[in-house]
Design goal:
This protein is of the alpha+beta class. The protein is built from 3 helices and 5 strands; from the N terminus they run E-E-H-E-E-H-E-H. A 5-stranded antiparallel beta sheet has the order 1-2-5-3-4, sandwiched between helices. 43% of the residues are buried.
Length: 122
Amino acid sequence: MTAEPLGAAKLEVRRSRFYAHLYRVTGPEDAPGVLGGHREAYRKAAHHCAALRCGSVEEFKNDGEVGRPGRVLLDLLRRHALESHMLVVSRVFGGVLLGPGNVGRAFRDAGEAALREAGITR
């Protein structure tokens, strides 16, 4: 990966594996490199959802995943008042469909675990 994560976590939900990483970014121009490095590290993952907050810029990507996991990750960054940060969660499908609600919860739980690992709690 191009950047070292501040916190990282792995979560398993019904055989799907979720890999979450929190990064510090200097601007929105860092996002493609961070996401590209994450995609490279987790090639088996079908989806790489991400959220970015940097200054007045707020963005999220669902990467074709059901529901709105990118929005869930952005809400985590907002709730913890994190700016100049990017949260990326990759999902390796385990063969069991989770449905939009469970997918959102799994991405949120993985993101929260990465924040805890970075020492960010509320």
